[in-house]
């Protein structure tokens, strides 16, 4: 995957992470209503932030590799 593709992936994941963060925040603001959704929303948020972290590391590694080439 090219550096440009990786950076586009980070941008996309960043938007998804923001949406997930807001969904988790909104859920917490309305507790105890919909408390049953906590695991689902939390898992979705955790997953997108895990993926974002991995994508950011991939961009960093690709930049380092490009400098060393």
Describe, in plain words, how this protein is organized in 3D.
The radius of gyration is 16 Å and the shape is rod-shaped. The mean pLDDT is 96. 84% of the residues lie in helices and 0% in strands. With 69 residues, it is mainly α. The longest helix is centred in the C-terminal third of the chain and has 31 residues, at 38-68.
Question: Would you identify the regions where 5 or more consecutive residues have pLDDT less than 50?
Answer: none
Helix content: over 70%
Distance between the termini: 16 Å
Structural class of the helices, strands and pairings? Answer: mainly alpha
Total number of strands = 0
Question: Keywords for this structure?
Answer:
mainly alpha, 69 residues, rod-shaped
Summarize the structure.
Helix content is 84%, strand content 0%. The protein has helices spanning 3-29, 38-68.
Protein topology:
Layout: H1 3-29, H2 38-68
Helix pairs in contact: 1-2
């Amino acid at each position: 995957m090219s550096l440009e593709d990786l950076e586009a992936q980070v941008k996309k994941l960043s938007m998804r992470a923001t949406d997930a963060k807001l969904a988790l925040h909104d859920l917490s603001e309305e507790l105890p209503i919909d408390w049953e959704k906590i695991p689902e929303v939390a898992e979705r948020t955790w997953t997108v932030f895990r993926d974002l972290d991995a994508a950011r590391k991939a961009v960093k590694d690709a930049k380092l590799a490009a400098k060393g080439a």
